[in-house]
Specification:
- This protein is an alpha/beta fold.
- Helices cover 62% and strands 11% of the residues.
- It is built from 15 helices and 14 strands.
- It is elongated.
- About 3% of the residues have low confidence.
Length: 747
């Protein structure tokens, strides 16, 4: 496996999409890529990008305070980025990573709103998936795959416990440790699940026992209940059908009688209407007297009007006589006329107060006009008018009386015609009256008989319905069923008498009451509860087996870790001493040693139920908990690594790193100005070591060192323009060498 391409966009100063491509292994070497550039150009941001995409979570190691700091923040000449993304493309043709892809693209993406995601070949995955995959491919998550400025010295000054994590990765056991941690977490979760399942079983079992007792009672009920239902169906079903048939028949007859009754009532009503008409004619006999009285009244009124006409004719004659005599109106007549006007006015007001309809108002209007007219005539007379005012007034009165007289005569003629017709109609109505009275009596007798039969039928229907209601309640009480449901289909034959059947049903009902009422849902609940209990017990068995398998797996992983660590630790110590001597002029001595382990708390056993039956296999503890580093430069014997000078510590750190890369090489290693503290002589030695180790691992070296650059086969230059963003230039040194050889040949 080797790194084919590094792609980043929006990460720190690399605002634009930037690609770094690396050549495949050639001539047995994986190659060295050097990244150079002035200080502040952003070279180390590429190392941070690699560390970030490999899953680094510490913002301190990424040289930031918060996650948003790694996204390009923008400058005066360039807008800020909305996200940061880095992708490592690895060649996996040798299947170093246990995945089916021959090209493995690992990506990490972060947005300004805080959302982030990890991807493998474009598919979103968990960080844990990437960590395990990288560990299986021998990548160091936080240690030597990316070694940055100051980290080499930190290895020396770190505590023995902190060094242990570094050396665990160097020993190539990180993947087993990750699996072990996952197994331990699963074991703890399994124990918790086991305790919960055991607690649930303890809660369910009492309820299951209670339900089992009820189901047993229900099983005792079933044969009795079935026999009672069958007998009840034969006994009650027959009675119910007979009652229903009787009620239907009675209702059919009742409907027929109701129709007959309606027809008879209509006939009676028709006769009565005709009788009413004859009675109305009969009442006209009484009306004959009224006609006679009305005739006499009109005759009297006619005589009175005639007398008035005679008086007016006399008054007219008297008025004409007065015209030829003295025109002075006597005072007594004036007083008399005024008193007459006053009296008429009072009468008019009295009538006006009693007005109740429009017709009366019209009559009063006419009367008022007469009062005004008489007064005007008299006024003309007393004012000395020489005209015949009195004559005119009496003439007008006479005309009005003549009209009234004509109207009365017309009414009298009409009354006389009615009196003549009355005698003729009376003879015709007497014969029809007797016929109708006979028919009415006949229809009333028929209605009486229909009502009697209908009443008897209603009594029978009420009796049947009462018996049906009583039977319905009894069926529901005894059998717990609806009568109509009971009487469906063919009914079984009753082998005993109805009395014996009723008594037997009551006895079986008493037996069922003694057993007790049980909800039919009990069986369903019992089955569900038992199924759940059995499931939980199966789960408990599976969990106990899983715990045993996990503990066995943890023990197996511990043995692998211990064996591989022990083997790798001895080799690391020898390689450390080897490279230490190379860097210190084939002299001095360095070694690694383990520190005494500290007791670790064991996983607590569950105290609940089946959890107590779990496997008692104890998980082996690590036999050391830290690493001590001893380094004695030539001619010195130091008790502590802290007593070394800065240069000695730098060489010691580089020797240790080279030993790790030699013993357990990562597919690629990023070195971020690791050689910055070395002098020229040691830089040449370091460059040679890197070149020697390049047949085991691929190096991406960020450096200012000329000796390191000379060993590189591809050179990337990083610059920063006025826009505040880093830009990349690339050069393949072998192309330069080929060009140089070509020019020499030409010369």
């Amino acid at each position: 496996m080797y790194l084919e391409k590094l792609e980043t966009q929006g990460f720190k100063t690399f605002a634009a999409k930037t690609y770094l491509e690396f050549p495949p292994p050639r001539s047995g070497k994986r190659g060295i890529a050097a990244i150079v550039g002035p200080n502040g150009s952003g070279k180390s941001n590429l190392a941070d990008a690699v560390r970030w995409v490999l899953g680094e979570q510490s913002m301190k190691l990424l040289r930031g305070k918060k996650s948003e700091d790694i996204i390009f923040s923008g400058t005066e000449n360039r807008a800020r980025s909305g996200f940061a993304e880095t992708t490592l493309t690895l060649n996996n043709e040798d299947k170093s990573a246990p995945i089916e892809f021959t090209s493995l693209a690992i990506s990490r993406r972060l947005y300004r709103d805080g959302n982030s995601e990890y991807l493998i070949n474009g598919k979103v995955v968990r960080l844990a998936d990437i960590q395990l995959l990288l560990a299986q491919a021998n990548f160091g998550q936080r240690t030597y795959s990316v070694i940055g400025q100051g980290m080499v010295d930190h290895i020396l000054v770190a505590s023995p416990q902190e060094r242990k994590e570094f050396f665990d990765e160097a020993a190539g056991v990180k993947q087993f440790q990750l699996k072990r941690d996952q197994a331990v977490n699963k074991l703890q979760t399994t124990k918790e699940n086991l305790a919960q399942a055991d607690q649930l079983v303890r809660e369910i079992e009492p309820r299951l026992r209670s339900l089992s007792r009820q189901v047993k009672k229900l099983e005792e009920r079933e044969p009795i209940e079935k026999e009672m239902q069958d007998l009840g169906r034969a006994y009650y079903g027959k009675i119910w059908r007979e009652l229903q048939a009787s009620i239907r028949q009675a209702r059919t007859k009742s409907d027929k009688f109701e129709l007959d009754r309606k027809t008879t009532n209509e006939a009676i009503q028709k006769i009565r209407n005709e009788l009413a008409g004859l009675e109305k004619e009969e009442t006209q006999k009484t009306g004959f007297v009224e006609l006679q009285k009305e005739y006499e009244k009109l005759a009297d009124a006619r005589n009175n009007i005639r007398e008035e006409v005679l008086k007016i004719q006399n008054a007219i004659s008297f008025a004409k006589l007065q015209q030829n005599q003295d025109k002075t109106v006597p005072m007594a007549r004036v007083v008399s006329e005024i008193e007459s006007v006053v009296t008429k006015g009072k009468n008019f007001l009295t009538k006006l107060e009693d007005v109740k309809n429009l017709e009366t108002i019209k009559e009063l209007q006419q009367e008022f006009r007469e009062i005004i007219s008489n007064t005007e005539f008299f006024l003309k007379e007393i004012t000395g008018n020489k005209s015949d005012a009195s004559t005119e007034r009496f003439t007008k009165q006479k005309s009005e009386l003549d009209e009234k007289l004509n109207l009365i005569n017309k009414k009298i003629n009409d009354l006389q015609a009615k009196i003549r017709d009355f005698g003729t109609q009376e003879q015709k109505s007497k014969g029809r009256l007797f016929e109708l009275q006979h028919e009415l009596q006949k229809q009333q007798n028929q209605l009486f008989e229909t009502d009697r039969q209908l009443n008897d039928l209603r009594v029978q229907l009420a009796r049947d319905e009462t018996q049906r209601n009583t039977m319905e309640q009894e069926i529901k009480f005894q059998l717990g069923k609806e009568p109509d449901e009971l009487a469906k289909g063919d009914l079984p034959e009753l082998s005993i008498t109805p009395f014996e059947a009723a008594e037997k049903i009551r006895r079986m009902k008493t037996q069922l009451d003694v057993i007790g009422s049980i909800d039919p849902e009990v069986i369903k609940e019992h089955d569900e509860t038992k199924e759940r209990c059995d499931f939980l017990k199966t789960q408990i068995e599976d969990l106990i087996k899983a715990m045993s398998d996990l503990e066995s797996g943890i023990i197996e992983l511990d043995e692998i870790i211990e064996k591989q660590t022990e083997k790798s630790f001895g080799n690391l110590s020898r390689e450390f001493d080897k490279y230490f001597k190379v860097l210190f002029g084939n002299s001095g001595h360095a070694e690694l040693s383990k520190t005494k382990p500290v007791d670790e708390p064991e996983l607590e056993d569950s105290e609940n139920g089946a959890a107590e039956e779990e496997s008692k296999i104890k998980i082996k503890k690590s036999d050391y908990n830290g690493i001590e580093i001893t380094a004695n430069p030539p001619g010195k014997r130091v008790k502590s690594i802290n007593m070394l000078s800065g240069g000695e510590r730098a060489l010691t750190s580089i020797a240790l790193i080279c030993a790790i890369m030699a013993e357990n090489p990562s597919p690629f290693v990023v070195l971020d100005e690791v050689d910055a503290a070395l002098d020229e002589s040691n830089s040449i030695k370091f460059a040679q070591i890197i070149d020697d180790l390049s047949h085991k691992t691929q190096f991406i070296v960020i450096s200012h060192n000329r000796a390191t650059m000379e060993k590189a086969n591809i050179l990337y230059g990083v610059t920063m323009n006025n826009d505040g963003a880093s830009h990349l230039l690339s050069l393949k040194l072998e192309d330069v060498e080929n060009l140089r050889n070509t020019k020499k040949a030409e010369l």
